Amino acid sequence: MLFEIRPNLEQSKVFDGLNLFLVEAMLAALERRPVDEAHLPAGLCAAIAGNEPTRTAVDALSAKLSALDQGQKQALGAALAARTDPCAFLSDRTVPLTAIPEAVFPALKSLAVHLFQRTAKLQGVEQACGECIDDHYARFRHGNAPGNGNVCCVCGTEYLAQVRADENDNEQWRGPYDHLLAKDLYPLYGVDPKNLLPICNTCNSKAKLAKDLVFKGGIRRLSFSPWTESASLQEIEVVVNDANDLFPRVVVNLRSADPDRQEKLATWDDVYEIKSRVEGEFKELGAKLAEDARAADDASFLQKLREVGFAKAQAQRLTPFNYWRARVYAAVIGMNPGSREALRQATTLTPQAIQDMEALFFQ
Fold first, then answer.
1. What is the pTM of this model?
2. Can you give the residue ranges of every domain in the chain?
């Protein structure tokens, strides 16, 4: 996680309601009793029962749970009653994962996927919960606290979704919710609001894909718990390496003296490919500097780098890559003067480029 999730953000009422229903429906099946609606949103059970595909998926899971032996029922019931926060599995490898009996797993997965993809959008479910998913999404990406801005908190390199003029917050386009614990592997948490984090399309659909935050190669590993943890400024090192390349190259290092924090940094990079994406963005370092800090001499160059870097840092949650530009420009300031001067000269416009710009803007 690059940016800390701001506290006091209200979770999705839809996902919270569906998660409460899923756990209660499972406990009811294990204990051979009716679903207790006392702690569920009023009208939620009726909305679910009134939708045939959802009702069919619930009945299929209930049948599988009812068929378990008494020992399996007791073990699963105790795990459900504990209501462990799914993020606890990320930040502490000693927290045991809930064992789902093999006979139950397919039906649980089918229901969890259906609840997330279909049931959550039913009008009756939205009415019972008092909002739609887009309402929570709008709260999350609001610019002011407890909102987190429209830049992805995981990477800082992309908008959560583009914003359109003249549209209400809950009618804007919405990016994906990432299942921190993948719903295909951990279906018990398929609609748990603590397991669902708005992230950008690149993090979700290109970098993470089916990667597991909890295991790699069958070995349990540590990950950031995104609602409470993030990388610190000191744990992210950005340098400009000009030792072995024809042109200076931006390098990102993720380091911590704490072994657990180092492992979390490594998992963050492995799953979301942070280093590769940031270093790739700044392969054309000269072009980036020409956009923001073209200057006639070193003193002016340093002044522009400081001014622009500070402005980017102040607006890191407003525009993609602002955080990383601020860190890169600070690294350029720290270069030895000779290398920095060569880099400054690389930003100078050619006579043809100047002529082309004059033709575009002044004729």
1. 0.91
2. 13-220, 233-346
